[in-house]
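Fig. S4 source data, part A: sequence.
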Amino acid sequence: MTATVSFTIDSPLGPRNATVAYERKGAGEPLLLLHGIGHHLQAWHPVTDILAAEHDVIAVDLPGFGVSDPLPDGVPYDLGTVAPALGALCAALGVERPHVAGNSLGGLLALEMGRIGLARSVTALSPAGFWTEGERRYAFATLLAMRAGAKALPRPALERLSRTATGRTALTGTIYARPARRSPEAVVAETLALRDATGFEKTLAAGGSVRFTDDVPGLPVTIAWGTRDRLLLRRQGVRAKQTVPGARLVRLPDCGHVPMSDDPALVARVVLDTARSTATRTAA
């Protein structure tokens, strides 16, 4: 069940209040789940129950996405603001240095949380920030086209499309390798989340100059890429490995940009293996 939490964040304007929606289940070491731009926490539903068997799982709607409030006026949606804000969110929930798994934008945020000491392990699924300028322009143009399509489609037409495999493929085939497997209800909900995301444009604008160029030493890091990712092409994983040389680079066969739905068992295993390796490092 979705709940909300309010907390204070640091910003260039000084302390400001933020309110974020989240779902929490399971027990064990904390695991924070971060979705991509234009998505919502339900992106993680295919794997949440598996992860919750070992972890206290906290899936969040990022500020300005899902049903979370936007950031306060004037507060930037940049990496230097949002990653520490997620640390403040964790503190408000009584969590210190969770394992963090993120997809796309969420993967970039997970890596940044690891870099600044806010995570005990990081699993980044097709993380943003390892693109060339041409690849970034292509991804942003694709995202803007998806957003425009979501805004232009009346809800009755969206619901009709979602009832057929062909319609679900037309709506979500850019981000899933197996879009026909998505339920009609999930496709409608995520299309509406993309349409209504108040933080979309500001997040995209803040990401125009983002390149992740720093190592993330001292903790387990896994970078995983779907072989059928059509948004952030899998060759970016090689650059990510070069940037974070200690990371484990994992191939996700027949998975798209949002792999949690395409192969829940594989994605869950990758996340759990990364978290478990923390104990191995500590024992060593």
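Fig. S4 source data, part B ends here. The beta strands are 3-9, 16-25, 29-34, 55-60, 99-103, 121-125, 221-226, 248-252.
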